[in-house]
Design brief:
It contains six helices and 14 strands. The protein has about 350 residues and is of the alpha+beta class. It has one domain: Deoxyribonuclease I, Chain A (4-Layer Sandwich), CATH 3.60.10.10. A seven-stranded mixed sheet has the order 1-7-8-9-10-12-11, with helices on one face. A seven-stranded mixed sheet has the order 2-5-6-4-3-14-13, with no helix packed on it. The radius of gyration is 20 Å and the shape is globular.
Length: about 350
Amino acid sequence: MIIAGILLLLITGLAFALLKGAYYPQILQAEPVVKRANSPLLSRQQEIKVLSYNVQFMAGKGYVFWFDLPNADGPDNQPSAASTHKTIQELARIINDEQPDFVLLQEVDDGAKRTQYQDQLAQLLSLLPDEYSHHASAFYWQSDFVPHPRVWGAAGMKLSTLSKHPISSAQRHQLALTPANIFSKHLGIKRAVLETRIPFREGGEMVLLNTHLEAFSKQSDTLQRQVDQVDSILNQLCAQNSPWLIGGDFNLLPAGQYQHLPERQQKHYRANSELTNLSEKYPCIPSREDLQNPHLWYSYFPNDPEVNKPDRSIDYLFYSPLLSCQAKRIRQQDTLEISDHLPLIASFKLNAYTP
């Protein structure tokens, strides 16, 4: 009995220590805005260029990670330092070439064991000009220690938004969690929306939203709940007459793509996509018309060896009716080795009647 009591105390103490090192964000919380340099205010008259990109913790395409296969049995746990160094350089090349006003990044590691505890955003910024004067981030996976055998160490992953113009404020919106056991619930990924507000020189502001929705919903209603939360945020912005953009990895297929995937690749999707409500309600990239040529809009190239080229669209930009899209594309020609996603790039102008 004494030994059993001691073991119980040890187990309880260990569990408490693990949970104490987890991340417990508020439903809505302010995030710090970092200013690197002075920069001009955004003008209502200028064209606005946005790049959205899931950078897969800068790993590159040379791996099949344990979570990349349907049974979570991929051979790789982490990329090498050489791989992440090369990938960060490649990402900087794309940003410097495209010169977007705003960069929305998903899966940026910071303090994670799997990427040698790197601050990947700091490494990227060291390769970019001071024009990218402001940035803000929101963690959606952070824990001192994750006892999963394929992690077994610290986790740190965030959304990051870079801007050539001043950011007045940033806040994190917590999204619905996937049903899970107590350790996964506390130590696992907590999906979010990062909101940044960009003041106009002429008055008013533009709202940028950056997100990465659930990838492992296990046939629960988590994705639908997350989509509903995003819709609620967008409804509020529309009611305020605020121009907005939301970009990111939605992990959802557009109508018609599910049926064209091999059966094994359909595992994490539904035939009737949860994306439908958003894509019918708000302007979207890719649009229904764009998807008449679906291969031009494939943004995801799975690490699964069964797939040998990009074969689906799961990354999107939705935008306010107060904006007009001027140009849009997936940069496919020289990005296949950077990430399992491809960058989505678009330019917009504010409509003349916008208040």
